[in-house]
Amino acid sequence: MFSMMNKFDIITQNGIACYGDDFGYKSGPLQIYLDVRNHLVQKMTHMDANVEDCIKLLRQFFNAAIYSYNYATAQAISKAAFDAMKGHAFWLENMDTSAIRKEFSALIQEEKMQKIRLTDIAPTFARTEPHWHESRKRRLLRSLTLNGTLLPNFLRKDTWLFLPKNFSGDIRATFRYNNILYYYGPTQEGYCARRDAVRLAKEKRIFSKVEKIVRRKYSSVKNDYKDNIKYMTSEGFWRKIYKNT
Question: Which of 27, 79, 89, 100 is least crowded, fewest Cβ atoms below 10 Å from its Cβ?
């Protein structure tokens, strides 16, 4: 945001090589929380988006989490929207994110990557083919049943589904499965996610309440960010911040 708001004379190198962990591997509730609130502020300050654009964005993030049984991430998305609607004062009060990280310490344990031996989970796994194609009939059935939420138990599968760890689960693949193993081959780490109707209903209720808050406060919060973004991305502001640290 700082570089976007200031006209720097930048000379770039011919190329940069960077080695590090896969971003999909590192993604979790805290990372998605930071990503979602950033998206919302960018939409309000740089894209002049209306409230429906932001609601659509939030639903996409939330549905990808809730229907892949990543309930901690779904909770993080609701919190990101709730915090973003506090306006610029929230960012001033939480610049080092220490309080937020402390709040997330328990939540991130739900989707924590750890060493896993596949045979300790199940003797065999269902798997999806790379770049597999979903039929129109199947896609319609997923839509009508809220990705299988409304299906009776006898139509569900208790077989474990193996999915590569990424930014989110593939909700096309999770349809009808009760148990998912998210796994990252290079480190032989992963975590188990299970369908939980009670938790799903709880997170949906929370998200619905937050969505109403977004609709109610969006216009005033958007104006608040626009009124303060120039100062908060100015050289003087950041010199003052670093001088006091």
Answer: 89
Residue 13 lies in a domain: no
The string of pLDDT tens digits covering residues 39-76 is 999 999 989 999 999 999 999 999 999 999 999 999 99
Integer angstrom CA distances of residue 199 from 62, 74, 162: 14, 10, 22
Report the share of the chain in percent with pLDDT over 90: 75
Residue 207 lies in a domain: yes
Residue 10 is assigned to a structural domain of this protein: no
Structure tokens, 99: 């309080």
Going by their DSSP bridges, the two strands 126-127 and 177-184 should be labelled as: unpaired
Within a domain: 139: no
Query: 146: closest CA among 103, 201, 105, 92?
Result: 201
Tally the C-alpha atoms within 13 A of residue 229's C-alpha that lie toward its C-beta. 19
Neighbouring C-alpha atoms within 13 Å toward the C-beta of 212:
5
Q: What is the mean pLDDT of the chain?
A: 91
Q: What percent of the chain has pLDDT over 70?
A: 97
In angstroms, rounded to a whole number, what is the distance separating the alpha carbons of residues 221 and 126?
Answer: 46
Half-sphere exposure of 92 (CA within 13 A, CB side): 12
Domain residues for the domain of 69 are 21-130+144-243
Determine the Cα–Cα distance for residues 99 and 80; give it in Å rounded to an integer: 14
Looking at the structure of the chain, the number of domains it has is: 1
H helix or E strand, kind and range, residue 218: helix 197-232
pLDDT score at 190: 96
List, for residues 2-11, the tens digit of each pLDDT value. 666 777 777 7
